[in-house]
Amino acid sequence: MVDAVVSFALNRLTDFLIQEAAFLGRVRKEVQWLIDELGWMQCYIASAEEKQADDPIVRKRLNDITKIAYDTEDVIDKFILQVHDGNIPPTRCFPSMSSCVKCRKKVNLHDIGKDIEELKIRINDLPRVRELYQLESSRIKGEGSSSNSLARLRELRRTTSFSVEKKVVGHDDGTTSLLAKLLDLDRRRFVVSIYGMGGLGKTTLAGKLYHHLEVKRKFNCRAWVCVSQDYNTHDLLLRIISSFGFTTKTTKELKRMNEEGLERYLHGSLQGRSYLLVVDDIWKKEAWLSFKRAFPDCNNGSRVIITTRSQEVAEDSDQRTFVHKLRFLTFDESWQLFCEKAFGNPNANSVEEQLKTLGMEMVQKCRGLPLAVIVLGGLLSNKTQQAKWKAVRDHIWQNLKKDSIHIPNLFVLSFNDLNYQLKLSFLYLSLFPEDFEIKVNQLIQLWVAEGFVQQEENRNMEDLAKDNFHELINRSLIQIGKISWGRVSIFRVHDLLRELAIEKARELNFLHIYDQMKHSTGNSSVISSCRREALYFKTENCLWRQQLNPSLRSLLFFDPYGYQPSEIYIWMKTTQTVAEFRFIRVLKLDHFITNGTLSEEIGNLIHLKYLGLRESYIRHVPRSITNLQRLQILDLYTSNTDTEISNEISTLQELRHLFGRFVGNFEIDSLTKLQSVKYVYCESWIRINTEKLSNLRELWIFGWRMETKREFCFDSIAKLKRLKQLVVLLDRNDCFASLQPLALCSNLIDLRLYGKIEKLPENIHNVLPNLECLFLEDSYLEDDPMPLLEKLHSLMILNLGTRFYSGTNLFCSAHGFHRLEILRLDDRDGLKEWQVEEGAMPRLRGLSIPKNYKLRIPKRFKSIPPPAECEFECKFEKYYRGATMYV
Length: 887
What we know:
Blueprint: H1 2-24, H2 28-48, H3 56-85, H4 101-106, H5 109-132, H6 138-141, H7 149-157, H8 172-183, E1 190-195, H9 202-210, H10 213-218, E2 221-226, H11 233-244, H12 251-256, H13 259-270, E3 275-282, H14 285-289, E4 303-308, H15 311-316, E5 321-325, H16 331-343, H17 353-365, H18 370-380, H19 386-394, H20 396-403, H21 412-416, H22 420-429, E6 438-439, H23 440-450, H24 461-474, E7 479-484, E8 487-492, H25 495-507, E9 512-515, H26 524-527, E10 532-536, E11 554-558, H27 575-580, E12 586-588, E13 610-612, E14 633-635, E15 643-644, E16 657-663, E17 676-681, H28 682-685, E18 698-702, E19 711-712, E20 725-729, E21 735-736, E22 750-754, E23 756-757, H29 764-767, E24 773-777, H30 786-789, E25 797-800, E26 809-812, E27 822-825, E28 833-836, E29 846-848
Parallel strand pairs: 1-4, 1-5, 2-3, 3-4, 9-10, 10-11, 11-12, 12-13, 13-14, 14-16, 15-16, 16-17, 17-18, 18-20, 19-21, 20-22, 21-23, 22-24, 24-25, 25-27, 26-28, 27-29
Antiparallel strand pairs: 6-8, 7-8
């Protein structure tokens, strides 16, 4: 964990040196020395982190290094503040003043030199203190040199075929489908991959299949091997041979053989046999590939079962793979499993009602994670007093962690396997409240503002952040909540993983959570120096602690209890208080300002990169906002309030995302880094010179505010070469001009139009060659649109809303819509018949048609289930034309 903090500080310091090299002068060598020392610390941390659980000396040393890394970041931010206080307008992330003589007089390099000298003394003191107190780690003294906590954990995790639980509750559906794959008539060898979050029961399910009577009958020989993170191919081959029970060579002979020899022996022994191999707990696909060649495809129905936490490993382990994602248990399955463990039978009919109620409440908290349910049931199995059950319920995760070594370590191996950016990114998720639905786009923007994503050449930071997000999904550390237009839009973190992440984050002084409902606790000195704070409120008159935190970098307000308190913003209304928060980079105050006033003091927070004021009714933005030269995200969106923003917004050159309902002179022409604008009225949009908005990727436009009939022209859109998503919502009286100009937007993949369209272009497949998602509503097309839309070769999601077509019949040809997966037809009044030739829409997996719809559809489509509503969800707040829209 410490490596993440040090790596983050090292990257900031390196960027600082590069951008300020000319100006730092004599201090430059001191900064470089500090960079070198942090680099050496990284090398030490790599070998020390695994030892800290067993060694208090190592733990103390890592704690000292963490403080040094944090203080290094403070030195950088203090320098930037000093530049700003000299009335020097910064122009970049680290404002270079090398060409300004006046700046050199105002910025005193002595201060930064003095701060670095103090850090230097502390760094040099690390070995001196160890020598002074004759401190040596236990491993140096020779104590416990053969093992440590992680090594013991890995040994405890090693499974065998005889140790797995054969009686499995739940997953009957998965067992049936997997068993069918193992027993089917396909004679080629293939891999069955089972993946999912740690504790879901992957090993248990594999064991159930391994010991199934029909499986034993089919396969001549079976073997089980546990791989884990630190594997040795030679050792794995020996254990596989032993598990198969091959005895033509002695153990001594086998141990003397090299890897190639073992592979040849195993390959020869398996020739002509129908075998089953279970490879449990694979972390890297290279592990299976390292000994895969020892398993011949004898064309006799042999199978390999792989269990892993990684989706990538599951999908890419072999050319012929059947992938099964293990789901969480339903509540009924969880309750049955709990009763088995707590009461010794699958029901609780004889249990007193109070205990049953408490048990159900706790099982619900486990959120379908079998390991948590099993440990909970075992913990309560010898407790019969209601008071003891209540004590467990009130501190459920703490009790489970104490009762099982597997619970606290459920997350350790996955976490340690992450790089430093992913570690910081995952720990950050613990700031969000329990059971919170986290919006992916907002999280991506927060990660970028926090600095968790490093710029790469020719790569957008938001894209890199999305890669990190999908990597966390791949590693089964987060749960997908909703999919919108083919992309994950909302996700959750399991409560248990969140609790474990909070514990890790607090060890690093990474965050503090003030939960009024739970009476936040913690060491006051630690809280007053933590880097990030989340505040959860339950009443309007919430009293936040009076203690201020000058080290705070992020402050996020949440309302998990649904009260939406007012006047929380009062803390920022005095200059003295603002001065205490001048290092802050992220300020999320969604829903927490009800008076619609944004104080001029906001301009003093010059480090600010993310300002979230959603649903805060801000009508006017103060001119002091121009001081926020590092601002990347400005969210002013309120569902029923228009915002007029001053012309000075054009000075915010770092701005990447701008959200609100913007009216008036919207001067964003010069914001070349702008990527998202949601929303702007047509009157304001047509005044903008869009040629300079070369990086704009998402644009949402409202119709005309005046009630005169107008036409929306796409000529200005055509200049946005990198645009990927375009949403335009017009009034029913308005209409769209020709879509032909969109041909210049070759990157457009998501188009949603609400308004009348006279006619679709005949060459629409050339106009929109890369379009993946299309929404049409109120378009009143006179001609059947299907013959043209079916030529969109990349189209995967088609949402045809109400009044999209004024005709009665639709026709799809045999070769149309060859990539379409999701289709929604919602024109409930006019349509009568839908003709689809055989071969059309071969990949269709979701079809939505309103209930009581009289439209005649082909028989083969009647069995296609409706997709989840969220798959083509496009929410707008219900205030405009009765539609729903959401940023």
